[in-house]
Amino acid sequence: MTVPARRRYDTESLLEVAVAVFTERGYDGTSMEDLAHASGLSKSSLYHHIDGKEQLLRLALERAVEPLFAVTREPRAVSGPAIARLEYVVRREVEVLADRLPYVALLLRVHGNTEVERWALEQRRAFDKIVSALVAEAADQGDVRVDLDPAVVTRLLFGMINSLVEWYRPDGARDARLAPADLASSIVRLAFDGLRR
Q1: Mind listing the pLDDT tens digit for each residue in 59-95?
Q2: By the 8 A CB rule, do 117 and 110 touch?
Q3: Cα–Cα distances in angstroms (integers) from residue 36 to residues 9, 23, 58, in the given order
Q4: Closest Cα partner for 164 from 95, 116, 63, 85?
Q5: 106 three-state secondary structure
Q6: Distance (Å, rounded) from C-alpha 93 to C-alpha 162?
Q7: CA angle 174, 175, 180 (to 5 degrees)
């Protein structure tokens, strides 16, 4: 009788398991025992790869935060009229969310109970400030309604985008209308038709 080969793990594959468990159970509700069970490894084997569950959380949240900020530094996000930059950022953020869906879903579920979670929340606030400044600049340039508070606009825009984590499944979508670029176009049309003066 042949014994099936044991799955080999590295930090990246453990990270995928941890993100799934953290998202399902919550970070606070997940123990190292839960991670060991989900990965099929012993706890001592887990510690061979990582220092602890907080390290996995930090790595997972970085997988969401870093590409979100990278978008704000792309050429089309930093040059041209503010409305065009804002539209570009919104469009690209949808694409990032679709590409990094499990990591962004986890980012949206942190509560600030640990140092790593507080870091993630600070990053989200910093990102919101960048987008709010773009909204305000677009309003100053006469392209966005001035009767809307830029911070509220930012929260509403990203509330709409972030809701994708609840229902969008790129791997199960065979319908071309659900491609990330098409989702981004739908959100941009819906949002910017109401924002433009």
Answers
A1: 999 999 999 999 999 999 999 999 999 999 999 999 9
A2: yes
A3: 12, 16, 18
A4: 95
A5: helix
A6: 10
A7: 95
Neighbours of 107 (CB within 10 A): 24
Helix (H) or strand (E) holding 83: helix 82-99
Two structure tokens written together for 56? 């996995």
One-letter identity of residue 86: L
Paired tokens of 42: 């012993």
Query: Is the alpha carbon torsion for 87, 169, 118, 44 positive or negative?
Result: negative
Determine contact, residues 66/25, Cβ cutoff 8 Å. no
Place of tokens 């709409």: 160
Amino acid making up residue 117:
E
Please give the model's pTM, rounded to 2 decimal places.
0.86
Strand partners, 144: 196
In the block, residue with structure tokens 């510690």? 47
Supply 82's token pair.
């503010």
DSSP state of 109: T
Residue whose tokens read 């677009």: 138
Nearest residue to 59 (alpha-carbon basis) of 7, 16, 110: 16
d(CA 51, CA 42): 14
> What digits encode the pLDDT tens for the residues 2-60?
434 455 677 888 999 999 999 999 999 999 999 999 999 989 988 888 899 999 999 99
